[in-house]
Write a structure and sequence with these properties.
Helices cover 71% and strands 0% of the residues. It is mostly helical. Helix 6 packs antiparallel against helix 7 (157-170), helix 6 packs parallel to helix 8 (175-187) and helix 8 (175-187) runs parallel beside helix 10.
Length: 248
């Protein structure tokens, strides 16, 4: 899932223009998912696909109010689904993801959402740890990494690292799993380990480039390439000669 937004500070005009086609795609997928859910409101797949579309569209929100409104729709659809099917993997997962979007629009209020997000992601990790390319473990890792520590919240480097490494173990060829682990190691000042992780990630990223092809992956690869190059620069590692300067 794309992790960029037009409203993020520091985005250049060129980056915003590049994102426009992907925003249009997200709007189209949202409209189609909303129509399917309206036509079959009791359909579980239609419910979680709409919640997923809300999360994706919220990435392109131009302000906090818009992001919150879209996320609330995904939250409502997920809660209705879970009222019928409490063990729905996708229902729990996209409820947590949309709560994360909502949390981005709040300050102190965000901490109140973190506990529910943690519970939901842990539940999905129990039900289907490989869902969304090991999404529950990846998300837990980021949650523990970025949340304030005890007693304010659930933040914990030890737990963050466990879940980020577990995501790589479960889905080693998914670029996002590799990238967030290396980014986190660098964030924690573990440069030697980050450099080692970059080395072992290169072949996995090459395999991913051959597997994840097509228009639907264009935006993700643009984001992954940018972050990969930033990591190489921060760690003073030269790009592999066959990569053309981008992610292998």
């Amino acid at each position: 899932m794309l992790a960029c937004a037009l409203s993020l500070p520091g985005n250049t005009l060129g980056e915003a223009e590049e994102a426009l086609p992907h925003a249009a795609r997200a709007h189209q997928e949202y409209a189609e998912a909303a129509a399917r859910l309206a036509a079959t409101p009791a359909n579980s797949v239609a419910a979680w696909e709409f919640a997923r579309a809300c999360f994706d569209l919220a990435e392109f929100a131009t302000n906090g109010t818009q992001r919150a409104e879209i996320a609330e729709q995904g939250i409502a659809a997920s809660r209705r689904l879970l009222a019928r099917e409490p063990d729905s993997v996708a229902g729990n997962y996209y409820l947590a993801m949309n709560l994360g979007q909502l949390a981005r629009t709040k300050l102190l209020g965000a901490l109140k959402l973190v506990g529910e997000m943690e519970t939901l992601f842990l539940r999905v990790a129990e039900l289907d740890p490989g869902f969304d390319e090991a999404g529950p473990h990846r998300s837990l890792g980021l949650l523990y990494r970025d949340a304030p520590g005890w007693p304010a919240s659930v933040g914990s480097r030890k737990r963050a690292r466990f879940h980020l490494e577990r995501a790589v173990e479960l889905r080693p060829d998914h670029p996002e799993n590799r990238l967030v682990l290396v980014e986190s190691l660098l964030k924690w000042g573990l440069e030697k380990e980050a450099r080692e992780a970059v080395t072992v990630s290169a072949e996995a990223l090459r395999r991913a480039r051959a597997r994840l092809v097509g228009e639907e992956w264009t935006a993700e690869w643009r984001d992954w390439d940018r972050r990969w190059l930033a990591l190489l620069a921060a760690l003073n590692v030269a790009p592999p000669p066959t990569s053309g300067g981008a992610a292998p």
